[in-house]
Amino acid sequence: MSQISISINGTQVTCAPNTSVLAFLTTQGLIQDISQDMIQNGMAVAKNGSILAKPLWANSSLQHNDKLDVFTLVAGG
Amino acid sequence: MNNVDLSSDDISRYSRQLLLDDIDETGQANIKQAYAVVIGLGGLGSLVARYLVGAGIGKVLLVDSDTVEKSNIHRQVLFNQDHIGQHKTQASYAQLRLVNPYTQIELAENQANSSNLPSLISGAHCVLDCSDNITTRKAINAACVNQRTALFIAAASQYSWQAINLRCNGSDSGCYACLLAQTTVQEDCMSQGILGPVVGMAACFQATQALLYLASTNVESGVNPEANPSAEPKANSETQNTWGKYYIMNAATAQFQSFSLPAYKHCEVCQCHK
Ligand SMILES: [Zn+2]
Description:
Strand order of the largest sheet of chain B: 3-2-1-4-5-6-7-8
Largest sheet of chain A: 5 strands, mixed
Oligomer: heterodimer
Strand content of chain B: 15-25%
CATH topology of chain B: Rossmann fold
Number of domains of chain B: 1
Strand content of chain A: 25-35%
Order of helices and strands of chain A: EEHHEEE
Bound molecules: zinc ion
Number of helices of chain B: 10
Number of helices of chain A: 2
Number of strands of chain A: 5
CATH superfamily of chain B: NAD(P)-binding Rossmann-like Domain
CATH class of chain B: Alpha Beta
Largest sheet of chain B: 8 strands, mixed
Structural class of chain B: alpha/beta
CATH superfamily of chain A: Beta-grasp domain
CATH architecture of chain B: 3-Layer(aba) Sandwich
Strand order of the largest sheet of chain A: 2-1-5-3-4
């Protein structure tokens, strides 16, 4: 198949097979609510319900029907 | 078995929580012998300390170097107008003494850091990270991993609160440093803003989890049923499957999420302790 379907924060989108999580997240314009600023400030990613450490984003490739959740870590108290 | 008896005052004081299967008299006796360290007396710690002391914990150490400011009062429920300018530790002590005269309350007027944390948490049955910045949170995590102390973390910003219960017991679960792994986190509620009850929800979750853990742990024998499966578990315990899960709640939209946190194999904090 030429494109795969994945879910990000509950929205279905398509991308090329084997796109890395990092490449996917930084694809300009693909996900409008993920800004470069968010990547700088505490952005965390869970892939299929499991948090993916940031150093692994570049080597984790997306497969059809993968589910990503992107959120921002907070530290206040 | 636990050889600490509950007094008749205990029975009446804690009667409502004694009705709970996960507390009952055994759990209450465990709580009565327990020692927790609360780091930070802000929106999280002031409420956490109130609930731990109210629930009859044997001993708490409250760690904070700040004084009460007017801008704290909307969310830091132990403090009122009369406390402005006082050390948070002292003001907390005065309030908590009135809540429960039986808890041993110790104070450390320190900013927790990597140098003093190993001694601050020494001997604690659990630590509650109620701090407000990443540097302190990293240092607390490292100290707890080193001493294999159960750690209850909560944080909040704007309308969102997050929490995780960690226990370094050689499992495949990660630690707070695994969660961060090169991620930089924007600091604190000074710039982001926070609604009082949102951080209060985080504190309530954190205190609930810590109390259930302490109730299920016989600190004299060091036996926690889950940590040691051969120990006799409490009959109706349905709790404590919450270790290593990262919880996120948006209190404005009521969206609740939970994710597992696997160990990051290059983590410099927890992976060298395996
Ligand atoms: Zn780790």
